[in-house]
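Structural prep section.
Before we set up the soaks we want a predicted structure of the protein with S-adenosylmethionine in place, mainly to decide which crystallisation condition to try first. Input record follows.
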Amino acid sequence: MLDLNISDLRQHIIKRSKELGLSQLQRGLLLARFKILPFDRIHKLLPQKGRVLEVGSGHGILSLAMAMMSRERKVFGLDLSPGRVELAQKLVQGFGLSPEPEFVLGDAKGIPLGQEPYAALFMAEVLYLVPYEEQKDVFRSAGKALSSNGIFVVCELVIDWSVGSFVQRAVSRVLTIFSMSSWGRTLFGYRVKGAPFLRTKEGWLEIFQTNGFNIETVEIVRKTIFPHILIRGRKR
Ligand SMILES: C[S@@+](CC[C@H](N)C(=O)[O-])C[C@H]1O[C@@H](n2cnc3c(N)ncnc32)[C@H](O)[C@@H]1O
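Run finished without errors. Recording the tokens verbatim:
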């Protein structure tokens, strides 16, 4: 088995996205995930072994990273957008991981129950696209898909009083309005009305706690100027 690291993954994404004929803008958005997402911290909060599911896996880069960082994990990815699922399936090819992550179509509000429950779920920058009144349905669905004491790791945009948070809200609003156009749909592969549905730190903690999870760890990550909250909850 090859000893792969994050820089190998980045090189693979550059090569594969060129082979797939993605535009420079699309390639830039993929590479931005390496700057934005705290891969290492998410990896440390997840179990090293067993079945884990990324909810809202998009292009699949985070799933690929989690599969690469522990080969005893069997990683699955679920996304609402057929275009994203297809892109993830194509991007994974040729990286040389075994087992490779598997990507399927589905909704976070009704996670398909596999043959066995998942040891952990993880979700990055997805809840802010789910309307406030539907976010609790994601947590209830997560609770059903997890094994007893299963882990749920969420990395999400958070409202605080930093400049980055204000800029992020403005950028999110512009991007989600853009996502409603046909150009935006082609670029992002999904359409979002009314987003961003952001919460403060207390708001994200409350939705975990009132929907069947105990909080184990919380940190605010400032990898870029945009603050993210990283929460590990455990099913009660
Ligand atoms: C900003 S991308 C994040 C992708 C990936 N998690 C990452 O961090 O690189 C958001 C993804 O969430 C997906 N999504 C939005 N609402 C969803 C839902 N209700 N169920 C499943 N996926 C959803 C979108 O299709 C999109 O691929």
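Observations: The beta strands are 50-55, 73-79, 102-105, 118-124, 146-159, 199-200, 213-221, 228-235.
Flagged for discussion at group meeting.
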